[in-house]
Amino acid sequence: MVSFTLNAKSVSVDADPSAPLLWVIREHVGLTGTKYGCGAGLCGACTVHLNGKAVRACQTQVSEVANKAVVTIEGLSTNSSHPLQKAWVALEVPQCGYCQSGQIMKAAELLATNKRPSRAQIVEHMDGNICRCGTYHKIIAAVEQASREG
């Protein structure tokens, strides 16, 4: 059994300690907002927060989160009221939407430490989270908008 805090709730899962956190979140806990993208830590679709730091859940073993705090897109806010979620909707960021939970979680890490990032800081921080639809200009605009409203 591995015990950790998931979205402010204590959970214990009976999973292989080497199992990727992504699959534990999806298959053992039943939260499906965190997406499988590449499985190699290259795209960012599976981004979650581990003790406030953005990590790739496909590359994080569940044993690594024991007694730590994990936040998924479902835990960012209970009613989609986080400034990033509101900006994503207002600016109609997603096309297919598949990468968006990872994009939002990566952006939330930035805004938690830098309330008013410059455009260059946003671009640098978001580098590595891939959007195959190419909505990068809208992603940057949404992070800028959220930083003004947050």
Summarize the structure.
This protein is α+β, with helices and mostly antiparallel strands and 150 residues long. The chain has helices at residues 21-29, 73-76, 83-90, 100-113, 119-126, 136-149, and strands spanning 2-6, 9-13, 47-50, 53-56, 69-71.
Q: How would you describe this structure to a colleague?
A:
It is a single chain. This protein is α+β, with helices and mostly antiparallel strands. The chain has helices spanning 21-29, 73-76, 83-90, 100-113, 119-126, 136-149, and strands at residues 2-6, 9-13, 47-50, 53-56, 69-71. It has a five-stranded mixed β-sheet with strand order 2-1-5-3-4, with helices on both faces. Strand 1 (2-6) and strand 2 form a beta hairpin. The model has no long low-confidence stretch (mean pLDDT 97).
